[in-house]
Amino acid sequence: xxxxxxxxxxxxxxxxxxxxxxxxxxxxxxxxxxxxxxxxxxxxxxxxxxxxxxxxxxxxxxxxxxxxxxx
Amino acid sequence: xxxxxxxxxxxxxxxxxxxxxxxxxxxxxxxxxxxxxxxxxxxxxxxxxxxxxxxxxxxxxxxxxxxxxxxxxxxxxxxxxxxxxxxxxxxxxxxxxxxxxxxxxxxxxxxxxxxxxxxxxxxxxxxxxxxxxxxxxxxxxxxxxxxxxxxxxxxxxxxxxxxxxxxxxxxxxxxxxxxxxxxxxxxxxxxxxxxxxxxxxxxxxxxxxxxxxxxxx
Lengths: 71, 217
Prior knowledge:
The structure holds 2 protein chains of 2 kinds. By secondary structure, chain A is mainly α. Chain A has a domain of 47 residues. Helices cover 76% and strands 0% of the residues of chain A. Chain A is flat, with a radius of gyration of 24 Å. Chain B is mainly alpha-helical. Chain B has one domain. The longest helix of chain B is centred in the last third of the chain and has 34 residues. Classes of the chains: A mainly alpha, B mainly alpha.
C-alpha cells in the first residue's frame, strides 16, 4: 500500500516536471500580464474578512440583546 | 428582529463593485489613467457620509419635536459613522491627489472645503462632550446639527463649483465631464454607491444598538 502511494506521489511530481518543461511560462489567470488579478484577490480577501467580522459583531449584539431583552 | 437580508445585499453589491471596479473596462483619459477607478471607491465614501449626516439631521429634528432621548442617540451615532467615512474619503482623495496633482494636499477648493465640513462635525462631537447634562446636551447638539447640515451641503456641493477646482467633475479637468459617466462605469458606480451606503447604515445600526445596551445597563 505504502509503495503504491509513493509511486503515485512520485508520478505526480513527474507530471509537474513535464509540464514545466513543455510550458515554461504557465500563464495562469493570476499571472496574466499586468497581475491585476492578484490585487483583486487581495481586495476580495480583505472585504470578505471585514464583512465576516461585521456579521459576527451583529450576531453577538443580537445575542446580548436577547439576553437583556432590549431592542 | 434584525433581518439580515439587506446586509447580505449590501455585501454582495460592495463585493461586486470592488471586483468589477478593477476588471471592467474604463475610458482612457490623460492624467487620470487607471486612477479613474477611484470613482468606485473614493466617491461612495462621500455618498455614505452625506446619507448618514442626513439621517442624523432627520433625527435631530425629530428629537426637537418630541424630546425623546432615543432620537438623540440615533443622531449622534450616525454622525460618528459618517465621520469615519468622511475621513476615509478625505484620505483616499489625498492619496489620489498625490499621484495625479503631485501632492497630497494642495489647498484645492474641493479638498479644503471638504476638510472644513468635516471639522464642522468634529465640532458637533466636541460640543456634545462639553455638556454634562443629558437633556441640555441633546437639545443644543440637535440645534447645532440642524445648522451644520446645510453648511456641509454648501461647503461640499456649492462653493467648490464656484471656484476653479482640479477635482474631476469640476470645470476644465480632463475628468468626469469628458465621458459624462459612460454606461460601463455606471454599471459599477451605482451598485458601489448603494452597497456602501447600506454598509454605512449597517455600521450605524450596530453602534446604535450598542449604545442602547450600554444605556440599558
